[in-house]
Write a structure and sequence with these properties.
Length: 134
């Protein structure tokens, strides 16, 4: 994102990054099932989270994924954690690195939150392995 981008530009950049990280099928499903009520939040997420922040040069996508795993564990947001485990793998994060981030959260966030995140991450990673075998 640069100072000359319009909201449409930032949204389009965000949509491209969101699809690259989370997978086009996931994003198209999310946006395809959006209601008129939830459309504004989906547009905000795409434009600002993905278009204004994820496109910044200060951190690479891999680093952003690792940070998100820790933050989503701290916030106990299991659904979003699962989405971002998939994104982390797409961004080149290894299973061992995911495990290490979650171990770190056990100390700083708490064991119950880390346990839940381990359960979520393990299921997502297993699902990804099954998908790869097909």
């Amino acid at each position: 994102m640069n100072a000359n981008d319009t909201h449409t530009d930032t949204y389009e950049h965000g949509l491209a990054v969101r699809k690259a990280v989370l997978g086009a099928a996931h994003v198209e499903k999310s946006l395809g099932s959006v209601s008129e009520f939830s459309r504004p939040i989906q547009e905000l997420v795409t434009e600002y989270c993905w278009g204004a922040v994820w496109t910044r040069e200060g951190l690479d996508r891999r680093s952003r994924s690792l940070i998100n795993l820790a933050m989503l564990t701290a916030l106990n947001r299991s659904h979003e954690l699962g989405v971002h485990v998939r994104g982390a793998v797409n961004n080149g994060v290894t299973e061992q690195e995911i495990q290490e981030v979650l171990m770190q959260t056990a100390i700083y966030v708490g064991v119950p939150a880390a346990l839940e995140s381990f359960r979520v991450a393990e299921k997502v990673l297993a699902d990804l392995k099954v998908s790869e075998q097909k």
